[in-house]
Design the sequence.
């Protein structure tokens, strides 16, 4: 099995090595291809900087990466990197895409904006299954907890393969001994923060952020993560809605 490991934090992130080790533990052939610079919030954008008509990819070394794992830094978003890999830009196309481990959570409907999840959405459009992994801290300490959760989740996903499936795993930044477990969760209405847009006198627009309101017994990814669970959510990639009723569109005249 060939696994592409990418992220949106850039090639200097230690989260890449975490996922590379998890894939290697299952006997996978691993390639790391990550943005040369931070590409957070890029969603599934297909953006890259061209150098003489080509997107530049140069050999690099992610921190902590196991010996023998090839690694390239690409001057592009994770969505474009995944697209290029799916089309054979880095050798044979991958059978699976691992994205992360992201610094900070990717929860709720805000996953739409995440470059970490965007890479897996892009893989899904090419029929490639993928897992996005995030560690819920801006400066995480417990990378080993994320690695254990990613490995356990990978085993489950690979035991029943599904073409183009998108899985999103969020892990609290806790010692493994304090983790409550991995639990299936639905997407919260918002992400880690809820945006509020106000227009003040004079036409000034102000955007503020606050934590989402979850009840103590909420089963959303954001609420369960806050209580100490790692959360696993299967997310549908963009699909057409052919079932909802819609009247005919009639042109005038």
Sequence:
């Amino acid at each position: 099995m060939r696994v592409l490991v990418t992220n949106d934090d850039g090639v200097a992130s230690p989260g890449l090595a975490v996922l590379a080790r998890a894939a290697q533990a299952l006997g996978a052939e691993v390639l790391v291809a990550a943005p040369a610079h931070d590409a957070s919030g890029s969603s599934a954008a297909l953006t890259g900087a061209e150098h003489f008509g080509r997107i530049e990819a140069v050999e690099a070394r992610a921190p902590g990466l196991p010996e023998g794992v090839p690694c390239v830094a690409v001057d592009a978003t994770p969505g474009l990197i995944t697209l290029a890999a799916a089309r054979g830009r880095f050798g044979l196309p991958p059978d699976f895409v691992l994205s992360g481990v992201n610094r900070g959570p990717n929860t709720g409907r805000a996953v739409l904006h995440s470059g970490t999840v965007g890479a897996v959405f892009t893989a899904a459009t090419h029929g490639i299954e993928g897992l996005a992994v995030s560690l819920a801290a801006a400066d995480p300490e417990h990378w080993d907890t994320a690695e254990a959760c990613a490995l356990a989740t990978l085993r489950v996903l690979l035991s029943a393969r599904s073409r183009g499936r998108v899985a999103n795993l969020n892990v609290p930044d806790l010692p493994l001994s304090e983790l409550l477990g991995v639990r299936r969760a639905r997407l919260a209405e918002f992400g880690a923060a809820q945006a509020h847009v106000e227009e003040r006198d004079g036409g000034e627009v102000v955007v503020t952020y606050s934590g989402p309101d979850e009840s103590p017994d909420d089963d959303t990814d954001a609420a369960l993560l806050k209580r100490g669970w790692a959360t696993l959510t299967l997310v549908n990639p963009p699909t057409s809605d052919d079932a909802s009723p819609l009247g005919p569109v009639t042109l005038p005249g």
Summary: The CA atoms of residues 16 and 101 lie 6 Å apart. Helices lie at 15-25, 78-86, 115-124, 143-159, 221-226.
